[in-house]
Amino acid sequence: MDHRIDFFIAILLLSFTNVDGKGNALNASEALQDDQLLTSTNGIFQLGFFNTTSSNIRYLGIWYNLPSKMIVWVANRDHPIISGSGTFYLSPAGTLFIQNSTGQDIWSTGSQFSQGEPQACLLDSGHLVVNDTETGKILWQSSYQLSDSLLANTPLGYVKLLDSTLEYQLSSWNSTGIDPSPGQYVRKFDPARKNELVTFKGSYVFYRTGPWNGTGWNGFPKMNKPELLRFHVSASDDGGYFWYEPINPLQLWIQVLNSSDGRTYRYYWNASNNNWALFWTAPDQSTPPYATCGPYGIYYDSTCHCCTGDFHYKKEDLDKQQFSGGCIRDRSLNGTYHKFVTVTNLKLPDTINAVANGTLSKSECESWCQKNSSCTAFAYIGWQGCLAWFGDIIDMQKFNPDDGYGDSLYIRVASKKGSHNWKIIFIIVGVGIAAVLILLAALILIRKLLIRWLFNKPLQTGENNPSDGEEDIQIFESFDFNTIRKATGDFSKANIIGEGQLGQVYEGVLDSGEEIAVKRLSKHASKGKEQLKNELYLLAKLKHRNLVKLKGFCVQQQEIMLCYEFMQNNSLDRMLFRLPEGASELNWEQRYKILQGISSGLLYLHEDNGDIVIHRDVKPGNILLDRKMVPKISDFGLARLYEEERSFFPNTSIVGTLGYMAPELQNGMLSTKADVYSFGMVILETISGERNTSHPTGLISLVLQYLNEGRLLELKDARLKEPCSEGEIRRCIHIALLCLLEEPQMRPNMREINVMLTSKSSPIPSLPHLSSFWGNVGPPTVVDSSSLLYHSL
Ligand SMILES: *[C@@H]1O[C@H](CO)[C@@H](O)[C@H](O)[C@H]1NC(C)=O
Ligand SMILES: *[C@@H]1O[C@H](CO)[C@@H](O)[C@H](O)[C@H]1NC(C)=O
Ligand SMILES: *[C@@H]1O[C@H](CO)[C@@H](O)[C@H](O)[C@H]1NC(C)=O
Ligand SMILES: *[C@@H]1O[C@H](CO)[C@@H](O)[C@H](O)[C@H]1NC(C)=O
Ligand SMILES: *[C@@H]1O[C@H](CO)[C@@H](O)[C@H](O)[C@H]1NC(C)=O
Ligand SMILES: *[C@@H]1O[C@H](CO)[C@@H](O)[C@H](O)[C@H]1NC(C)=O
Ligand SMILES: *[C@@H]1O[C@H](CO)[C@@H](O)[C@H](O)[C@H]1NC(C)=O
Ligand SMILES: *[C@@H]1O[C@H](CO)[C@@H](O)[C@H](O)[C@H]1NC(C)=O
Ligand SMILES: *[C@@H]1O[C@H](CO)[C@@H](O)[C@H](O)[C@H]1NC(C)=O
Ligand SMILES: *[C@@H]1O[C@H](CO)[C@@H](O)[C@H](O)[C@H]1NC(C)=O
Ligand SMILES: *[C@@H]1O[C@H](CO)[C@@H](O)[C@H](O)[C@H]1NC(C)=O
């Protein structure tokens, strides 16, 4: 099917008339009669009684109020009103009831304890929500009891309670369009697996999507349509959930679990023909039934294969083309020698018998699996990290490598001793040759050559004008090694003032009395050299009051040292979180000035230096403070020049510091907005005096909570004693929240932020709705799009 932009144009042409005048809400003790309807404010959803056949059987439900009615939710699926008409009412305590014609309650939402007047409201998002109008607390919502349909921004998942698990799952109708009672299919975000959606038919697995890999379900490539829908998964030890978000909020979507074939159908509304258009189904035609190829079998090219050459199907199974028995190992695993064979572009096996450990690196993952002989395979995927399987692996599908879908799986197989020896000999010879080469290179390279090599070649993406770097470098003074040694007391431990990415930083005093800071590249930091070159190149080029200034450098044999102006007040990190003895707290005025300074520095990096430079590691530890508390951005080791036409860096390794990294970096999207995000976090930390990472739920959740509870100013650092401007603090929090929006395009740029921070009368854009932060905050509650706006700051 051709999904083109035309359906984006789908503008709703709905009549906003409301026949029964019930509006969108039911007050306490109020009833909705059989012939009455609630209509959401935007007119898109209706709630009322309906029948599916000409019989008198009545249900209460919510549907899309469109020419082609689509029922999205049914209350009394199991308990229809058999004859006569029903009544729907809200008790004063906040419970919803359906009564049949003889006044008997046939359905309810269970005990509620509303402190004030409760109200039931049909929201613009299609959800029915009961809340306590006195406390605003949500008592119940229809998404707690999903039917066969999933609306946008609705969580599908589970919450672990002390002794049970609450699941928010879809279940198909018994028969589509006729009988809404729960049918044989259930689709859920399975708590027993590692973040994958599974459709069950009765108690059997019917289909699984594959685990979430940060960009999508590993086994469902169709989902890759970021221009139309965004998908989110959030999980912790206490629960997990999935939801989808239309990019165009006016576009209507629905996802239905079909009662007859068990597939999930995703539709959107096509306004040009007033009908629902099918977007995709999961599974689709190319997906084999669950476990078709059996353990260690892979579905590929419309048939089954064993996952590696170390396995085979039984001859009689092959003859009968009957693969579900799976593959057998050529050589059993009970010998001493094992190796891992890589299979790429794979829908990973069922995670029911997988164990996840997100803290392991890829090589740790391998050795973890290697060590435990019952570990049969492992994978290292985005977002989840290390997954290791124990026992047989099943339900794999290989995608066409040209499409790049799927992820790699490493499968344990037995290996012969001999092949190991060859490998070892190869490695030894290789290492030997490399060592000789390195030695030769070291001997040949005299100091001058090394310098030329360092500075002649511009770094990262600056290929276009190779002479620039060299000219700029001449601005730096070249220090003599003995001068530096003397200044730092022969690199005495007492003079160490910091530990950078590349090595130690020493304090020193030159003969002239001038104080300097010396960064000494650790000899072992091999990858540090790239970063150092980067830093030198950028510092040669960049000059600004709020960037740290390089005074000179020194090259001694292979060792390289950089000399910076000395910063009397160390770093913002030190001043906020690890205040040195005898130093006094930063007061609000100083903190505000520091934030302004950082924003000027970043603005210069992003826009005003003639190039676009992204720092990539903005955090209080990299904000140095001079005698007058003027902030200087430092540590350009990770920064990079930015080519405007290419905003996607698929091969960029994700770098930065946890707690300050923008969410889109996970997907390889790098732009100046990543620095904006980090700066937002620096603002919150500067105000609160607390590290983001040391707060259990993170500062963003904390702010949102304070915001919703109307006690925003409690975020303020308790150590800020003197009266400080509440207006400024509110303004800064507001700016920080804008910087921290999940969607990079929605964040302001540094120029706008700089204006907002420096000119107190300049307007600030209002905050968009809560879902913009959902990627960052804990458990979902469905909120009306109209009520999503924050309390004004
Ligand atoms: C419901 O209650 C609100 C105030 O709580 C009131 O303004 C409104 O008129 C009531 N609606 C009906 C239909 O009684
Ligand atoms: C519901 O019942 C009424 C009256 O029996 C009938 O006219 C109507 O067609 C039925 N609706 C559906 C969808 O069958
Ligand atoms: C109403 O519900 C009660 C209890 O389920 C049932 O006994 C009664 O027959 C129902 N009345 C009608 C008219 O269906
Ligand atoms: C909840 O109650 C408040 C009153 O506290 C009301 O203004 C709001 O519209 C209600 N929200 C929902 C989602 O029903
Ligand atoms: C679903 O429909 C079938 C056939 O109409 C019926 O036998 C079965 O009892 C129904 N299941 C439920 C749970 O109502
Ligand atoms: C379910 O699938 C059948 C065909 O397989 C289709 O005709 C029907 O419209 C589907 N139902 C829904 C609710 O999508
Ligand atoms: C939407 O409706 C128009 C008019 O019937 C049709 O031409 C178009 O193909 C439809 N779009 C999709 C994606 O089905
Ligand atoms: C090794 O595996 C083979 C075949 O799986 C089995 O027969 C044998 O008993 C195993 N040996 C040990 C020591 O487990
Ligand atoms: C992950 O691995 C680390 C290091 O081996 C270990 O300390 C940690 O407990 C593991 N976590 C889980 C959830 O297994
Ligand atoms: C191997 O892993 C399994 C599953 O995590 C565990 O039960 C078993 O104790 C482990 N064995 C060893 C030797 O660590
Ligand atoms: C996640 O899975 C999808 C679908 O197979 C694939 O296209 C994508 O490349 C994977 N992403 C990563 C980061 O592995």
Description:
The protein has an eight-stranded mixed beta sheet with strand order 26-25-33-29-34-31-32-30, with helices on one face. A six-stranded mixed beta sheet has the order 35-39-40-38-37-36, with helices on both faces. A hairpin with a 3-residue loop joins β16 (170-175) and β17. The chain is built from 13 helices and 44 strands. Mean pLDDT is 82; it is low at 1-19, 446-451, 455-474, 643-652 and 770-793. It is α+β, with helices and mostly antiparallel strands and 793 residues long. The two termini are 46 Å apart. α5 (467-473) crosses α7 (528-541), α9 runs antiparallel to α10 and α10 packs antiparallel against α12. The longest helix is centred in the middle third of the chain and has 28 residues, at 417-444. The protein folds into six domains: 21-142, Bulb-type lectin domain (Agglutinin, subunit A), CATH 2.90.10.10; 146-196 and 218-280, no CATH class; 297-417, Hepatocyte Growth Factor (3-Layer(bba) Sandwich), CATH 3.50.4.10; 420-454; 472-565, Phosphorylase Kinase, domain 1 (2-Layer Sandwich), CATH 3.30.200; 572-774, Transferase(Phosphotransferase) domain 1 (Transferase(Phosphotransferase), domain 1, Orthogonal Bundle). The chain binds 2-acetamido-2-deoxy-beta-D-glucopyranose (11 copies). One 2-acetamido-2-deoxy-beta-D-glucopyranose is lined by residues 357, 359-360.
